[in-house]
Structures are given as C-alpha cells and as structure tokens.
Amino acid sequence: MEDLLKELSKAEEIVLLAIWRLGDNAYGVSVRKQIKIDTEKDYSYGTLYGILRQLDFKGLVEKLRADPTPEKGGRGKTYFKLTSEGIGALKAAIEFHRRVWRDIEDWSFNGG
Amino acid sequence: MTQLNRKRKSPPRLAEWIIKRMSWAEDRDDILDNLREEYKTLFIKQGKVFARCWYWGHTLRSSLPFFVSDFKWRFIMLKNYLKIAVRSFKKHKGYSLINIAGLSIGIACSILVMLYVFNEISYDKFHEKANRIYRVAVSADIADMDWRQVYTPAILSPTLVNDFPEVENVTKLYNMRDQLITYKNHTFQDNKTLAAEPSFFDIFTFPMISGDPVTALQSPNSVVITQSIASKYFGLEDPVNKIIQIGENEFKVTGIAKDVTFNSHFDFNFLVALETFEWSKSTRWFNNSFATYIILNEGFDYKKLQEKLPAFVTKHLYDDNEDHNRWEYFLQPLTSIHLNSNLKGEFKANGSAAYVYIFSAIAFFVLIIACINFMNLTTAKSAKRAKEVGLRKVVGSVKSQLVRQFLSESIFLSFAALLFAILLVECFLPYFRNLIGEQLKLNYFENSYVLPGLIGLALLVGIVSGSYPAFYLSSFKPVSVLKGQLQEGMKDSNLRNGLVMFQFMISIILIISTIIVYNQMQYIQNKELGFDKEHVVVIKNTDLLGNNTEAFKEALTSYPAILNVSGSYTLPGRIFNNWGIKPEGLPGTTIDFCVCDENFLNTLKMEMVEGRFFSKDYQTDAQAIILNEETVEQFGWDKPIGKTFEMRRTTLTVIGVIKNFHYKSLHEKVFRMGLLPLRGVQNLSERYISARIRPDNIPSVIDKIKETWVSFSPQIPLDYSFLDDDYDRLYKHEQQVSKITSIFSFLAIFIASLGLFGLASFIAEQRTKEIGIRKVLGASVPGIIQMLSKKFLLLIFLANIIAWPSALFLMTKWLNNFAYKTSIGLSIFLFSGFLALFIAFISVGYQSMKAARANPVDSLRYE
Questions:
Q1: CB of B65 within 8 Å of any CB in chain A?
Q2: pTM for this structure?
Q3: B814: closest CA among B736, B737, B732, B745?
Q4: Contact at CB, B68 and A45, closer than 8 angstroms
C-alpha cells in the first residue's frame, strides 16, 4: 500500500490541511467549516466523506472514536487525525509545489 | 425541553432515510450525526424552514458524490488488489509461472476434451423433431449368434404406419455407397449417395436452398444434391432440372439441399428418389436392405410401441421365417444412435459412449491434478510469505484484509492461467482436430454456457486454492512467525503429501495404460494375419470393366513390378457377406463368404491346409467352395474334402481347407468363412482387383497401373488404395486412444512433476536453517539430498502400490474388447514405476541439491 502515494489531488490536499489546522478538533462538521474558511467552497458531506475514505485507505488519515457522550446516544464522535504518512504527504505536497513554482516571481503572469 | 424539543429538532426523516440508503456502511452513522448537529444549530439560529431546506439541499448535493465515490472506491480497491497480485507475481516469478503453466495445461486439456464430448453428444440433435424420431432395427439369433443390424425390409415402413396409429410417419433410406456420377461427359466418383422417399424431408430437417422438399423426391429418377456438390460440378450454372447420370440410371436434379453438418449419423451428397427402383417395392420380409425411420406422435412413449413389436413380427413374418429363428425389431431413439448403436450396416462409423466417458475421465483427472498442484504450490508459497504476514500483523493489518490479499492473488493467477489456457487451446486446436478426426469449433460466444463456465471454473479454482492458505496463514500468531517458528503443520502437511501421491498415482496409471495400449497396437499391426497385407494395391470398382476384367488382370501381370493379380468381391478388412447354409449332415447355420478368382490365394499369400484352391483347369469349380479351418473345426469334419453344402438352393462341394486368416479386425474371433469362385453359382461381381507389387519404386508402379486402367476405361478415374492402409483403418478408434492416452500421460506427469518441483523447492527453503546446521555438524551433500528426497520418493513408491492394481483392472477391461490381445507383463509396471520415480527424483533432486550445496553461513544467517 505504500506505493499508492502519488501526488495528492487538490481536494485531498485541502482536506488534509484542514484536518491539520484543526488539530485535535477535526470531525465532520468542523472540517467542513474549516474548508469553507480555507477555500470558500461548501463541500457536501458526500464529497467530504468520499475524500476522507480515500485518505483513510491510503493511510494518510486515521479515525479515532471519542468516548460517547449522553447527547449522541450510544456512539462517540469520530475524529480525524493525520498519520505520520499524512504529514509526510503534506510535506511532499509543498515540496512538489515549491519545485513546480520555483523561480516564478511574476505572480500576475504578465508577458510571456 | 427534553422529548418534545428533541423531536422537533430532528431532521426530516425522509431525507435521513435517503442519506442512509446512499452512503456506505462505515461512515453512515458518522455522517448522519454530523448532519444532525449542523441541523440543530441551524434550526436554532435560522428556524425550522431554513434548516429543513438546507438539509434537503445537502441530501441532494451529496447524492452524486456518494454514487461517484462508491464507484471510485470499488475501482481503487480492485486496482489495489490487482497491483498487489502483480507485485507478488513479479517477486516470485518462477513459482508463479510454474503454477500458471500447470493450471493452464490442465484447463486447456479439459476445454479440448469438453469440446470433443459436446461434439459427440450433439449428433443428430439439429432435426426439429429429433426427440420423436426412432430407427427400427433388427435383433436376431442367427446360428447361435446375437445379430443386430440396421437393415430392414422395404415393406416394414408401410406396414408400421398401417398397424400403429401412433406412428405418425415413416421413411426408409437405402445406402447406395460408391457410385459413378456423370454430367456432361465429366465423370467422377462419389461415395455418399443415398436413396430416399419424399417423407424424408418430413421427418428429418435438411433445409433446401432451392426446390420443394415436398415434391423433390416424388417422381422417379429425381435427385437432390447438396450445395457443395452443386458448386463443385455445376459451377455457376443452376443445377435444377439438369440431367445427370448416377450409376446406370439418369436422374433429374430437383433440388439443392444445404450440406449435411458433420454431426449427423448419416451423410449424403446425392439423394435419389427411391421411387426409381423397382426393387424398393419388394414385399418380401427377409429382403433386408433399408434403414427404416419412424416418427411417433407427440408425447408417445416409444417403449410402449416396442412392446407391441413382437406380436407384429409374429403376425407378418412368421410364415416367411422358415427356421423361426428369433427375429425382433427394436426402436432406437435417433439421438442415441451415434454413441450407442454400433449395429451392422451403420451409414457412418459411430462414436462410442465408452470413449466419451473415458476421455472425459482423463481430462477431469488431469484438471484435478493441475488444480491440486495449484493449491499445493499456493499453500506452500504462503508458508514462505509467513514472514510477510507476521510483519503485517504486527503493524496491524486486519485479518480480513490479509485474506482478501491472498485470495485476490490466487484468483489473479487463476485467471492468468485461464487466459493462457485459451491461448493454448487456440494453438493446439488444429492438431486436436486431426487427432480426433472431427470438426471442432470453439465458439466462446455462441453457446451461452461456455464463457461463464470458464470464468466460473477459474474463479472456483482461485478461491478454493487461495482460501486454504489465506485463512490458515492469517490465523498465525505474529510473534512466533517472526521468530521463525512455523507451526509444525506447515512443514509436512499430510494433506499435501496425499495430494502429491494422488497425482503421481494418476500419472502412473496413465503411463501404464499408454504402454499397454501401444503394445496392443503394435501387436495388431504385427500379428500374423494369415495373409500378407503389405505392398498390395487395391483397385476399386473394377466390376465396371464388365467382361474385360480378365484382360485387365492379364495386362497388369505383364509388368514385372506387379507380382500377382487377383479379383474378388470383397477383401479382408471389408465387409464379408453372411448367408445361411446347410452343411451336409448338420443343422442350418451361416458363414461369412467372399467370392474370388483362382489367384486370390497367391496374391494375398495365404496358405492351404488341405486340398486345393480354385483353378481354371477344373470346370467343376463353379460349384466348389473352400472353407477355413475354423469352419471345419466347428463342423467336426475330419475329412472335409468332398463334403457338400446347400447354399441359396445350390449344392456346393468342398475342395479345400484354407488356413484361418483374419479377414475381420482383431476385435473379433475368426468366424466361419468360405471362399467361392468368381464365375460360380453365386454370381457376384469382381469389385476389387488386388495387385501385389514390388516394394521398390512404388510411384512408377502406380503410374503403370493408371496407364493400364485408362486404356481399359478412359472415362472413369482410377480409384485405388493400399491394403495395409485399409486394414489399419479398422483400428482408427484404437489409434486415437493410443495417441490420446500417450499425450495425456505425458501431460499428467509433466504437471505432476511441475508440482513436485515447486513443492520440493519450498520445503527445501523451509528447512534451510536445518540444512545449514546439519552441514556444520558434518553432513555431506549427498547425505542431505537423500534426507530431503526420502519423503517424496516414499510417496511415489506408495503411489505405485495403488496405481498398479487399478491400471491392471482398467486395462484388462479394455483389452477384452479384442478377441486377440497382447499380454500384460510385469515389466510394464516396473518400467512405469521407475519412470515415475526417476522423474520425481529429478524434480526433487534439483532443489535438494541446490539446498544442500548452499553455504551454511548464509543459511544460518537466514533470519
């Protein structure tokens, strides 16, 4: 499963970053909100959990069950946390980005 | 604030239900929880309506992603498993290839044999009314012999229709065999001419391309030809209404029928109207020349009709049946004829149900061996992977994931084997066709069972062979695996050893059978037949020379390369007519007989025991007969010369006794046989002229014969063959069996050795450490080889013990088909046993040697 790590897709990158930003408080609702803040996009639950599933399969993210609270009735919230591979993936992503965007100074892309 | 509020604050139920249905199990609850939380927040902040709209909006928005996600997910999973499988394949290329090779061969064999089997089963099923059609055949007791034949009298069919209302229709067929066909001065020979009635097309389904099936055969002197005949001899001309000559009569073409497919028990190129011939209207009950077919009413049980037949026989035949021998008619379902009939007078050689079973069994066993191998190797290989497993488990893979991984690997290999097998089949199909002598086509898409069947097979093999190691392995305790302590079970599984033994047992049985079959074929080829079949040219249809046969024979003898020439009505290896006779002082019985000229004895190099052969010097020879030893023995005549016979209302005198010769195949014992002179009382024509030739420069002799023939009969092409070829054709079936068993036994042993080879290597690897230690302690290389191989060789030895009696039993049964058979010697068994042992030794030995030679330092470091 190790070599399934190709470049992260944009959406995966966004989700991973959001989870990282949230630290210990990354769960469904908060992640969605964070993404809204980061990208101004409103990810539907379908999309979000689809990406999360993929990330989980690739081993970049793990799911942690919190202790059940009386409110939820039975099951605890599922929190998402980056694994070491997940962090590694983010590092690789930024490296990749840096490589591809190296030396680009003209960010308005005038001329050329 | 509790119950009531909670209910009011819950999201729309319908929407929740939709989400539930669309999402996947794992995250379902989590998603719903999160949605509910947001809903609650919105409810409080923005009110019920807003919240509900929002919820619905999300439900709809998520539906597509759920759907798409699901597909992507499955796809990724599949890709993943495939990747893993391919990776593992690459890592163990050698073993994987062995595995695939073995399995492909097994699958390919089964496919080919199944093809053959379906072929044979499919005979005669293409007729629309096939399940209502029956052939009426004869079973009789003639001179204490059980006599079953196709031939029935002309009057049988109309009488059946008359007497039995359940018989919807009847038709009879007459086999006209070889005929000379002439059209516009172009003469050619054809051996597929039948004579039929108009009801033929009623009962059988032979589509016509032009002409009316109802009327085509109504008028005398009409003929229906097949499509390929039409294009071959008429080219672009329309054959309909043209006149052709068949034999001595002229016929008008009244229709063209589609070619007869191979899976019909009779075949024709020309179908002439039976109406043409006066003799077809004979009312005699014992003029048996026709094949009679009936079609019964829907749903009528043919056995019921069969019960009424003995009374039918009594009613109509009793007066004609002078000797009141047992004479019965019985019904054969049309579709059963090809595999089960084998009566005298079949149109085409029948297949044999027995051989269908045998070949199916052989293929089944080869497949089993290949599958067992596959399982064996996969299991043993997973022992090697135990380390990997151990590691994975420590890291935390879920058991089900491991199982899935192993399963996907073995299924992948299994499908790879299937593909390769199909490739093999396509490659070898032409050779197989030659071997079987039939047309075989593998249509992957036509028959709706083929493709799913193959896929199902591959899946089954993959799953079964993958599940054993998968479950077994994933239940290991990781720690003990990492420590290198494998459970004892893995090293030396009784099951696995049993499987190896089973494989070799089957292989040994096949080897023994092959040898015995081969021996029997050799025996047949070389047995003293009582006549010399080598270097004899047989010229056919010589009765067409009419009165010139004598002159033709003389012309041939004038060539020095032609040593001896003789004319006869039939020849050894062909059908000998069988007629009733009344020997002097003995009850009536029958003999096979042949009509021949005075050179017959010398041309075929036969021997007389007593008396003399026919000779031109004796006028009285016209009423002479020569008997074979068997006849004289059976009659108990000490002095046969001079005894008389009644045959077809003439008296014949015995002038000599000829040494028994095998005029029939060695399947049957030599029967009572007599030779009659050509221009004697039994006026049968000289259909064959046999010429014994010098073995050198055969083509030039043939040319000379051709020249001579042309000078006597320019219009008619020369048709000749060699006597030894003709005689050998009696054993076509056995030759097939011989070839097939040898091929299959080679394959079986090959597969078994492959399996053994792979297995041995894994076991050797297993015990690397043990071997290393032993070497350090001073064991020698040969010693180690012996230690490793001992177990396997013992298995082979055991396999022999079981194989020998089984093979003996089977082969004795098979040999009983022959009246004259070779003996089964102990040496055959010993040889087969040693062969198997030798091959096993090579397979195991190589691996053992490699292991034994390994440097102990490396093996001990193997951690």
A1: yes
A2: 0.66
A3: B737
A4: no
Q: Would you give the DSSP letter of residue B754?
A: H
Q: How confident is the model at residue B476 (pLDDT cuts 50, 70, 90)?
A: low
Quick one: pLDDT at residue B470? Answer: 66
Q: B385 to chain A nearest CA, in Å? A: 17
**Predicted local distance difference test score (pLDDT) of residue B144:** 64
Q: Compute the distance between CA of residue B117 and CA of residue B360 in angstroms, rounded to an integer.
A: 7
Q: Say if the Cβ atoms of B65 and A54 lie within 8 Å.
A: no
Position B840 pLDDT exceeds 90: no
DSSP string, B556-605: HHTSTTEEEEEEES--TTSPPEEEEEEETTS--EEEEEEEE-TTHHHHTT
Which among A45, A78, A80 is the top mutation candidate for probing chain B, defined by the most B β-carbons within 10 Å of its own β-carbon? A45
Query: A4 CB near a chain B CB, below 8 Å?
Result: yes
pLDDT (tens digit per residue) in B204-260 = 999 999 889 888 899 999 999 999 988 888 888 888 888 998 888 899 999 999 998
Residue A63 distance to chain B (closest CA, Å) = 10
For chain B, percent of residues with pLDDT exceeding 70:
88
Q: Say what the ipTM of the complex is.
A: 0.86
Q: Please indicate whether, in this complex, the C-beta atoms of B23 and A77 are within 8 angstroms of each other.
A: no
CB atoms within 10 A of CB B175: 19
What's the average model confidence in pLDDT over B624-637?
88
CA dist B853 → B397, B786, B856 (Å) = 37, 13, 9
The residue of chain B nearest to residue A47, with distances taken between CA atoms, is B65
| DSSP letter string, B67-119 | HHHHHHHHHHHHHHHHHHHHHHHHHTHHHHHHHHHHHHHHHHHHHHHHHHHHH
Cα-Cα-Cα-Cα torsion B179, B182, B187, B188, nearest 10 degrees, comes to -40
